[in-house]
Amino acid sequence: MPKKGTKSKKKEVDDVPNQQENKLPDYLELQRTRVVCNDDAPIYVHTFICHSSLMAFHLLIMITFITLALHMFPCEIVCLVCLIYCLAYKLNFTYMHRYFYIKRLIDYITEYNSRLPTLGTFAAMGVDNSVSVEKFCKNFKIEINRLTEDDMEFDMIGIDASIANAFRRILIAEVPTMAIEKVFMVDNTSVIADEVLSHRLGLIPPLDADPRLFDYISVKSSELEWLPEGSQLSMSAPAHSGDKQKTFTSFSQSQKEILEKPLGVKFKDITIARLGPGQAIEFEAHAVKGVGKVHAKWSPVATAWYRMLPEVVILEEIKGAQAEELVKKCPVNVFDIEDLGNGGKRAVVAKPRACTLCRECIRPEESEESTEGASEAQESSAPWKQIELRRVRDHFIFTIESTGSLRPEVLFTEAVKILEEKCERVISELS
Amino acid sequence: MNAPDRYERFVVPEGTKKVSYERDTKIVNAASFTVEREDHTVGNILRMQLHRDPNVLFAGYKLPHPLQYKIIVRIHTTSQSSPTQAYTQAINDLDKELEYLKQAFEDEKNRYEERMKQGF
């Protein structure tokens, strides 16, 4: 038994310094850069767990002790303490082996400590996982896929999920827009109550005004404005049912000179209220700049979302009838048939980007087929292990759908500016 | 009825500092930063950037309660750096990265418009 123990010790201590190439073993590289999807969705992300035997456990304790103690005590004293530890736990080494192996361990750890500032996770394997600003700038890429006046789809490669999520949150809640806030009712004889009508007016998609030209009103709304031209109500515009609402107030300087085009609503076919014969609505509404955090009416996007790029990998070849079946299964036509020379067919991945990860292609067959016979069941469950669905961890496909107040690319630029401002505000004034 | 006003989520009231700092008495090189009126948007990004720093041993953030609008960021570092240093370094790095991201987006937008014009 002692010989076995020492041999495994030797391998462990010997192996570690050798694995200093800059590449992880394949399965670890896969875990680091891809999220694997199985057919029992949702799937959690595996964390890196290692199993250890008793011997390795003691080794772990010794390594920890040595790492900490080397800062304070010289090498030989640390060696001595390790020997005493081995004796205490009756670890089966011979005396010579103990000394040599521990010395080797200490040498290795001092070397490791000197390299410590450059390594992160996976440090023991010699792979540099730290990300500096230069590395980020080198690996980062943006590609715009589609850009129209109302929506935009673009790819961001090389960023982390937290930044992507921060952009999504800011686009939905913190980019300011203009929406109707105060409504002064003059006349309302319709069946819709005043407050309901006002609520609906507020929810009209943010107006066609560039919010960057406006300032916020004071949050504590007890300010009274001086109206140099008398009562405003006499200037209110008559409201037509269902048609566009033109709203304006009078200031000491007309707003026409500040804005290039008249304030209006982008979508002219929104029904605000239906009127019967003899009914009328007359009101004046004030639009105010705000953010989505206070009320959802100020959200500038219909929605904004992101997804990770899907990756479909065929592990073993799928031929013939199975290939046809596979192509039919996929609802978004990710797979396609490739004709081989002698009449055979093979399934290939044609459009992995369109994959919605519905997992139809890897789902095992339903029970109605498996009751027909064991062979059938085996046939039907076999192909679905030949495909692996994955998502690339740092490639995000962003989609922004704007409601019209700002163009989507302008919205994204504003979101980046807002995130920068937030970061600046968070810097402590202490140091 | 007891819900706070919605503007409380981002307006720092008079008298409170935006960021405050408490050293941990029991562990060396450990501190908690309390950032008022922020949420997961900044917290998660800060935590991610701190994890990338090899001098940081522990970095995490939490919202103590969803109706109290503040985050607590806890940082432990090695003896080679201090929590405040790690924190300011992380934010400066983030600033640079976002600046670069904005520039890259502008460039890509211009390139896309060029491509569209030439496509016709």
TrEMBL record, chain A:
<dbReference type="InterPro" id="IPR011263">
    <property type="entry name" value="DNA-dir_RNA_pol_RpoA/D/Rpb3"/>
</dbReference>
<protein>
    <recommendedName>
        <fullName>DNA-directed RNA polymerase RpoA/D/Rpb3-type domain-containing protein</fullName>
    </recommendedName>
</protein>
<dbReference type="InterPro" id="IPR022842">
    <property type="entry name" value="RNAP_Rpo3/Rpb3/RPAC1"/>
</dbReference>
<keyword id="KW-0804">Transcription</keyword>
<dbReference type="GO" id="GO:0005666">
    <property type="term" value="C:RNA polymerase III complex"/>
</dbReference>
<dbReference type="GO" id="GO:0003677">
    <property type="term" value="F:DNA binding"/>
</dbReference>
<keyword id="KW-0240">DNA-directed RNA polymerase</keyword>
<dbReference type="InterPro" id="IPR033901">
    <property type="entry name" value="RNAPI/III_AC40"/>
</dbReference>
<dbReference type="InterPro" id="IPR036603">
    <property type="entry name" value="RBP11-like"/>
</dbReference>
<dbReference type="InterPro" id="IPR050518">
    <property type="entry name" value="Rpo3/RPB3_RNA_Pol_subunit"/>
</dbReference>
<dbReference type="GO" id="GO:0006351">
    <property type="term" value="P:DNA-templated transcription"/>
</dbReference>
<dbReference type="InterPro" id="IPR001514">
    <property type="entry name" value="DNA-dir_RNA_pol_30-40kDasu_CS"/>
</dbReference>
<dbReference type="Pfam" id="PF01193">
    <property type="entry name" value="RNA_pol_L"/>
</dbReference>
<dbReference type="InterPro" id="IPR036643">
    <property type="entry name" value="RNApol_insert_sf"/>
</dbReference>
<dbReference type="GO" id="GO:0005736">
    <property type="term" value="C:RNA polymerase I complex"/>
</dbReference>
<dbReference type="GO" id="GO:0046983">
    <property type="term" value="F:protein dimerization activity"/>
</dbReference>
<feature type="domain" description="DNA-directed RNA polymerase RpoA/D/Rpb3-type">
    <location>
        <begin position="151"/>
        <end position="429"/>
    </location>
</feature>
<dbReference type="GO" id="GO:0003899">
    <property type="term" value="F:DNA-directed RNA polymerase activity"/>
</dbReference>
Automatic annotation (TrEMBL), chain B:
<keyword id="KW-0240">DNA-directed RNA polymerase</keyword>
<dbReference type="GO" id="GO:0005665">
    <property type="term" value="C:RNA polymerase II, core complex"/>
</dbReference>
<dbReference type="InterPro" id="IPR037685">
    <property type="entry name" value="RBP11"/>
</dbReference>
<protein>
    <recommendedName>
        <fullName>DNA-directed RNA polymerase RBP11-like dimerisation domain-containing protein</fullName>
    </recommendedName>
</protein>
<keyword id="KW-0539">Nucleus</keyword>
<dbReference type="GO" id="GO:0003677">
    <property type="term" value="F:DNA binding"/>
</dbReference>
<dbReference type="InterPro" id="IPR008193">
    <property type="entry name" value="RNA_pol_Rpb11_13-16kDa_CS"/>
</dbReference>
<dbReference type="InterPro" id="IPR036603">
    <property type="entry name" value="RBP11-like"/>
</dbReference>
<comment type="similarity">
    <text>Belongs to the archaeal Rpo11/eukaryotic RPB11/RPC19 RNA polymerase subunit family.</text>
</comment>
<keyword id="KW-0804">Transcription</keyword>
<dbReference type="GO" id="GO:0046983">
    <property type="term" value="F:protein dimerization activity"/>
</dbReference>
<dbReference type="InterPro" id="IPR022905">
    <property type="entry name" value="Rpo11-like"/>
</dbReference>
<dbReference type="GO" id="GO:0003899">
    <property type="term" value="F:DNA-directed RNA polymerase activity"/>
</dbReference>
<feature type="domain" description="DNA-directed RNA polymerase RBP11-like dimerisation">
    <location>
        <begin position="31"/>
        <end position="103"/>
    </location>
</feature>
<dbReference type="Pfam" id="PF13656">
    <property type="entry name" value="RNA_pol_L_2"/>
</dbReference>
<dbReference type="InterPro" id="IPR009025">
    <property type="entry name" value="RBP11-like_dimer"/>
</dbReference>
<dbReference type="GO" id="GO:0006366">
    <property type="term" value="P:transcription by RNA polymerase II"/>
</dbReference>
